[in-house]
Design brief:
single chain, about 400 residues, mainly beta, four-stranded antiparallel β-sheet, 26 strands
């Protein structure tokens, strides 16, 4: 399962040699980069460290993104369902609320893989005002919604509180493994990550079943509608027109619980981090029609352990690490900003349990990882990564004080 409970932080996990089929000369030295609080004076509008009954409530910023509209605003969504905006300038003092969905979003600390999990702005947001969200609804138990929203026509700096068009409504068998990441690709299509349905060991055998949406990354055409749906299916999705029973929304499958996916803004490479179960965390480059092995493999290893590994037709991860290093991967981005030259071209990711952050360098010409370097960080749980319009990179942590948004700088 995606391990998010803070009790896990009591476990001290030493950084040993990265558990990866290494290549000669892989660079594992520390990199001259550190993390710092992004906006030290920032106050989160409407948030209090205590709820109205006096109980402690963390701020859980779970998405960082931008609208691509030239405004320079940073959008930060919390797991309880509030989307904040930050004006990117020195001395930012207070967020503004773009949308408050707390009455519609179900979040509970003891089932904390639910809630508001995904936010992506349409590539033409400046013209059409659309954005897309993934959340767990309060209307039905353990039910995920993927929906289209739009800005208020009279006040376009905030969202229309009333308009919502559902694209998908997914009944989850369990509260964990919701996935929830949504993003647009360079092709203009919306990509949606769904976990395997939850519990442990993939009890419903969804991982290798392409007649279910679970354990997959979906690819949707949200600019068109077809077959009674609020979306169309791209004609080059891998199961379009194929014999047998398949969900044609599927782009890639065999994924246990993708927690963080992103496109490299320079190369278009599609990165996804898949949370492991027993021993292994993995990073994948996602391909059209790719099968990434779950539930017969965990990263490069047979699952359950001891079985003969299933390899035919399955794509290997570009990197893996074992649970001596960390126990729940948080996927990130390939850095393409200007302020931290040491990170350019590196995929920056973290582990939620160990709190460590790394910069990974992958040589596509040789199909191998050539570096995995530790970044100085607070070593606290990292929930997510995100970029602003300048491609500068941020990461988020749960916080009782409001200090939950961080960035990187050179030492």
């Amino acid at each position: 399962m995606r391990i998010l409970l803070l009790i896990c932080l009591a476990v001290a996990i030493p950084l040993t040699a990265v558990a990866q089929p290494t290549h000669p000369g892989m660079d594992t030295s520390d990199i001259a980069v550190k993390s710092v609080q992004a906006f030290p004076e920032l106050k989160w509008s409407g948030w209090s460290p205590e709820d109205d009954r006096g109980r402690q409530q963390e701020l859980r910023p779970i998405v960082v993104t931008h609208a691509g509209d030239g405004s320079g605003r940073i959008f930060v969504a919390t797991q309880r369902g509030v989307i904040h905006t930050i004006r990117k300038r020195e001395g930012a003092q207070e967020t503004k609320i773009f949308l408050d969905m707390q009455k519609s979003v179900r979040y509970a600390d003891n089932e904390n893989e639910e809630g508001f999990l995904g936010l992506a702005f349409h590539p033409n947001h400046k013209e059409n005002g659309e954005f897309f969200i993934y959340y767990t609804t309060t209307e039905e138990p353990h039910t995920s919604i993927v929906a289209r929203r739009r800005v208020d026509k009279e006040h376009p700096t905030v969202a229309d509180p009333d308009f919502e068009e559902q694209l998908l409504k997914i009944k989850q068998p369990f509260w964990n493994h919701n996935g929830g990441a949504v993003t647009f690709g360079p092709d203009g299509y919306l990509y949606v990550a769904l976990g395997d349905g939850g519990a442990a060991n993939d009890p419903h055998k969804n991982g290798q079943n392409t007649n279910t949406l679970f354990a997959s990354i979906l690819r949707l055409d949200v600019d068109n509608k077809a077959d009674g749906n609020a979306y169309a299916i791209p004609s080059d999705n891998p199961f379009v027109g194929k014999e047998g029973e398949h969900r044609e929304e599927i782009f890639a499958y065999g994924l246990r619980n993708v927690w963080g996916m992103s496109f490299d803004s320079e190369t278009g490479d599609f990165w996804a981090a898949d949370v492991g179960q027993n021993k292994w965390e993995e990073i994948n480059l996602i391909r059209n029609g790719g099968n990434y092995g779950w539930n017969v493999r965990e990263a490069l290893h047979a699952f359950p352990e001891g079985d003969a590994p299933a390899l035919e037709g399955m794509i290997d991860p570009v990197f893996e690490y074992d649970h001596k290093v960390g126990k729940s991967i948080t996927g990130g981005f390939v850095y393409r900003g200007d302020t931290v030259p040491e990170l350019v071209g590196h995929y920056v990711y973290a582990d939620y349990v160990s709190g460590k952050i790394w910069a990974l360098k992958y040589d596509s010409s040789e199909s191998r990882t050539v570096a995995n370097r530790l970044i100085e960080s607070p070593k606290s749980p990292v929930i997510s990564f995100g970029v602003d319009e300048d491609q500068e990179l941020y990461f988020t942590m749960p916080t009782k004080t409001g200090a939950g948004l961080f960035r990187f700088e050179s030492k």
